[in-house]
Amino acid sequence: RTDRTFTMLKPDSVEKGHIGAILEKITASGFKIVAMKLTQMTTADAEEFYAIHKERPFFGELVEYMTRGPIVSAVLEKDNAVEDFRTLIGATNPEDAAEGTIRKLYAASIGENAVHGSDSDENAEIESQFHFAGREIF
Ligand code: CMP
Questions:
Q1: 64 to each of 30, 39, 44, 99, how far by Cα in Å?
Q2: Tens digits of per-residue pLDDT, 11-40?
Q3: Nearest-atom index, ligand 1, CA of 10
Q4: Residue whose CA is at the smallest distance from ligand 1 atom 4
Q5: Structural domains of the chain, ranges and CATH numbers in brackets
Q6: Its pTM surpasses 0.90
Q7: Is 92 annotated as a binding residue?
Q8: CA torsion, ordered 88, 117, 86, 20, to nearest 10 deg
Q9: What's the complex ipTM?
């Protein structure tokens, strides 16, 4: 099967009206959308999703940010999806992100960095199942 990855257009992207432009860039880069919805994470959702960062000093700020408004979550399909999507979004810190990447274009800071991309095939599967029921993934 073609590889899949999981993404979220984070609250800052939705607030700034960047949903359309970011999705256009994603699909123009060869990713097929196989699941997508607009939802708002609860505090409990965000604490669970980002549990790996629980001990980090920015954890509280991260949970506040990710729950302050709706996000667009999606599952994307493409050969080499995880790695290619991380290349497309660019470095976590937009100051380090390459020209033309989504974070270079749309992210404000290392904290408010516009988009999420899974960091492994295993996490892509876990994160997709966290956000979507089986019947929502095509
Ligand atoms: P992401 O890599 O998708 O997942 C972890 C998130 O934590 C990261 O995006 C940022 O939104 C946030 N983050 C990472 N490093 C920092 C930092 N130094 N300060 C604030 N937020 C951060």
A1: 32, 15, 11, 29
A2: 999 999 999 999 999 999 999 999 999 999
A3: 11
A4: 116
A5: 4-136 (3.30.70.141)
A6: yes
A7: yes
A8: 0
A9: 0.92
